[in-house]
Design brief:
84 residues
Length: 84
């Protein structure tokens, strides 16, 4: 083999390595996107569950001032009732 052939084989090997690297980067990107979507879905589900819990609590807590709740809790419940 001549020097030019060896040089071309070296270039081909470099191209194959670049293709492998690009494929790996694309796979990593796809995995990160899937992970971010899953995290967003979980956060949305948790938010929905929290809203449902708040509504259940607001429905069962009396509106009377004799209720012994923390003033901040009363304010949050009243705000929630205003949104419903």
């Amino acid at each position: 083999m001549g020097g030019y052939s060896v040089h071309k084989l070296y270039e081909i090997k470099g191209l194959a390595a670049l293709k492998d690297q690009a494929t790996q980067q694309q796979a990593d990107r796809t995995a990160r996107i899937a992970s971010a979507r899953h995290a967003a879905q979980l956060a949305h589900k948790v938010s929905q569950q929290l809203d449902a819990t708040k509504r259940k609590i607001a429905a069962h807590v009396p509106r009377t001032p004799a209720c012994r709740l923390n003033p901040d809790a009363v304010r949050l419940l009243n705000d929630l009732r205003g949104q419903m």
